[in-house]
Amino acid sequence: MLTGKRILLIIGGGIAAYKSLDLIRQFKKAGAEVTPVLTKGAREFVTPLSASALAGEKAFTDLFDLTDEAEMGHIELSRSADLLVVAPATADLIAKMAGGHADDLASTVLMATDTPVLIAPAMNVRMWLHPANQRNVATLTTDGIHRVGPDEGDMACGEFGPGRMAEPVEIVDAAIHHLMDGPLKGKHVIVTSGPTHEPIDPVRYLANRSSGAQGSAIASALAALGARVTFVSGPATATDPGGVSVIRVESARQMLDAVTAALPADAAVFAAAVADWRAETETDSKIKKDGSGRPPSLALAENPDILATVAGMTEGRPDLVIGFAAETDDVIAHATAKRKRKGCDWIVANDVSPETGIMGGDENAVTVIDAGGAEAWPRASKTEVARKLAARIAKALG
Ligand code: CTP
User: Atom 18, ligand 1: which residue's CA is nearest?
Assistant: First the structure.
């Protein structure tokens, strides 16, 4: 499965490093070439000799090993791989990656690379759950770093919980997933998702019921076909998709800025349920009851239309611009008109009347409208709808 693929395996300094030796074997069994890099800490647990013997290749350890620099160089070392795998990814290594440190061979290679990176974290449960580590992991997710595990279970330190490194077979499976060539390889797609929150005062906001589930599923499906995905999400409750670059925003105006900054793209899918209006003025302090019994009036201002803005670009417009139309009646008629009005190529229309259970639910029933007409898809899970849409996008961009 991994024949012809080159894995640069960075082994961090944790007790789980013993599993990395088996990981090398599993990668070799799958047909991959493995170049091991051991951190100083890793060398306390396993020796470069064992790693190199199992890999059948030299194991690298030192940034300032001049022979290595002459032979290859740390930049070349990172670029010649198809995938960088960090296993075990210790709390320290994760923090270094999140902070952009480059003070040894492993961290320098990770900084110098433009190759996909997969981390397999392993650490004590308290360390894994520590806010600092969670912050760092979130940063890596935003940076588009892939992750497998950690698993939950008994740990070498005697505690129980999340923190145990994923099993070598799981890591190899994750690597296979990320190395698969898909029809969207080399394409960049922007996906907006979730609701937006429009502040009224420091404690209140205007929002809607979008969970972000459909947008997340679309981003995952596009990534699975090999696309580089920038996922711009409002405060959604759905889990972030894996293997994509996540940009978190709150308001419609922030979402527009993030989308504009992420351009150029080959396609853009606007699945976010953007709030149409925001409070005309946001007050710095909480609005109080004035005792008169009369509620305060709330003046609204219209938000920028992100879809229409991108679809109407004369320069740098993505080849394919896709909008969604959340309607409660006359779905097809409204969506067809919306496609024209917004200037997008396709509109994915769905009926969000409460009785359909679609908004916030697991299923969706959509009609895809393009210049050629309307195509109704049977009701299916949001994952299935996302896969079908990603395949249609791949065909259109192909
Ligand atoms: N959209 C957007 N920016 C906005 C409003 C909507 O990018 N300010 C996008 C949505 O992401 C979606 C499409 O426009 O892809 C249609 O959203 P929808 O809420 O159905 O339509 P509206 O433009 O809000 O029109 P209306 O409320 O009149 O139905």
Answer: 325
